[in-house]
Design a protein that fits this description.
single chain, 380 residues, alpha+beta, Gyrase A, domain 2, Elongation Factor Tu (Ef-tu), domain 3, 6-stranded mixed beta sheet, 6-stranded antiparallel barrel, 21 strands, 21% helix, 30% strand, globular, binds (6S)-5,6,7,8-tetrahydrofolate
Length: 380
């Protein structure tokens, strides 16, 4: 049994005590029936982290198709005459360029330049958005901003829950579900349709590098029916229940809010500046702070690293990095890739240590000697 299998088996993970505070998802019953072994809590909702084992889930995602309960990617709806102004205020990305039927990845930044969240933003109408959030409190922040600016806008938690269909066979399965060619849906585009008798929004997006769709349910009573309908069309393609996979998402370069970045980081440190348009004409809360960062530069930056030795268990806290005998940053996420046969990780390191090939020592929790690590450009 690999380290991962032992770590993720239920007798090593604490059991999650459920109560009213941990909101039930409309797909949750199927996730339990399909044998999810471990869960995390994300936006006050359970999110499965493992079904069979990280490695078995990983290989299946690379080769087949999975359905994921990602209801925890909750929506904040912004609607009304000042909707665009409020969304523009929250991010340095140029939201005016986002068309109806399109989604964009947009870091939300506060007045100090700190990253509040890194959501997808869906434009449903000229004056109506869903902000599909990562794990942090965006609803109250946006409500506060709207009140502070006296904006004519409603900011609320709509009845919406996404599930995802991910993997190389997702296109085929969705074509079968919709009865029309799923390739008509472009990357980060969405359409409204009906599946299993319920209105849904279907977007080509999702938190894996393997491609696929996210299906936004709007009637929670229809959640299990929606799941079952997708399942029925997926059976011939070896569909399984799955979840965002730690190994795959690090390989794919997808960053996790709360792990790889927090409110203490700015977009330049994390490399998210490529998704924004500094100096956009609309007002944004982080303008002055981010301009100061542009002038002063950053001290640390995100890099991808490979860590030698045996498979390492995932992180609970960050691990210190040493470079040339000096403190050299922190490891923020790590996983053993069974395909690349090495530990792959995200790290935040001083700018001087970001060059390809830079060698580090990693103080892995519970180990007495440092592991050797090297900065790489990424994985494909
Ligand atoms: N889907 C939806 N909501 C979400 C996520 C999601 N909310 C939480 C979290 N995931 C938000 N974070 C991300 C991070 C990266 C991406 C999507 C959501 C992503 N990035 C691609 C990349 O970096 O290669 C593409 C970015 C681009 O080209 O614009 O897909 O997964 N609904």
């Amino acid at each position: 049994m690999s380290y991962y299998d032992r770590w993720s088996s239920s007798n090593m993970s604490p059991v999650l005590g459920l109560s009213r505070r941990i909101l039930e998802t409309p797909f949750e019953k199927r996730v339990h029936e399909q044998g999810a072994k471990s869960f995390t809590v994300y936006n006050q909702m359970p999110l499965a982290t493992c079904f069979q084992s990280f490695e078995a889930d990983y290989w299946h995602l690379l080769e087949h198709v999975q359905i994921w309960d990602v209801a925890c990617e909750r929506q904040v709806e912004v609607r009304g005459p000042d909707a665009l102004r409020l969304v523009e205020l929250s991010t340095p990305r140029d939201v005016s360029k986002c068309r109806i039927g399109q989604c964009i990845y947009a870091p939300l930044c506060n007045q100090s330049g700190g990253i509040i969240n890194d959501p997808l933003i869906l434009r449903l109408a000229e004056d109506r958005f869903w902000i599909s959030i990562a794990d942090s409190g965006v609803l109250l922040w946006l409500q506060g901003l709207a009140i502070g600016r006296d904006f004519d806008v409603e900011v609320f938690d709509p009845v919406v829950a996404p599930c995802a269909l991910q993997g190389p066979k997702a296109d085929t399965v969705l074509t079968s579900v919709l009865g029309r060619d799923s390739r008509d849906i472009g990357f980060f585009r969405f359409l409204e349709t009906t599946i299993a008798g319920t209105r849904v929004i279907v977007a080509r997006s999702g938190w894996s590098g393997r491609g696929g769709f996210e299906i936004y349910l709007q009637d929670f009573k229809k959640g299990l029916g929606l799941w079952d309908e997708i399942w029925r069309h997926g059976e011939a393609h070896n569909i399984r229940a799955g979840c965002p996979n730690l190994i795959e998402r690090i390989e794919a370069g997808l960053l996790s809010y709360g792990n790889d970045m927090t409110v203490d980081n700015n977009i330049f440190e994390i490399g998210l500046d490529r998704f924004v348009k500094l100096g956009k004409s609309a007002e944004y809360l982080s303008r002055a702070a981010l301009d100061r960062v542009v002038n002063a530069g950053v001290r640390i930056k995100h890099v991808k690293i490979e860590v030698g030795g045996d498979p390492i268990t995932p992180l609970r806290s960050t691990w210190p990095i040493e470079c040339g005998g000096k403190p050299g940053g922190i490891v923020t996420s790590i996983a053993w890739s069974p395909r690349l046969k090495t530990n792959i990780a995200n790290a935040l390191v001083p700018v001087a240590n970001t060059k390809m090939g830079t060698v580090f020592g990693i103080a892995v929790a519970g180990e007495s000697t440092l592991r050797t690590a090297v900065v790489v450009s990424g994985w494909s």
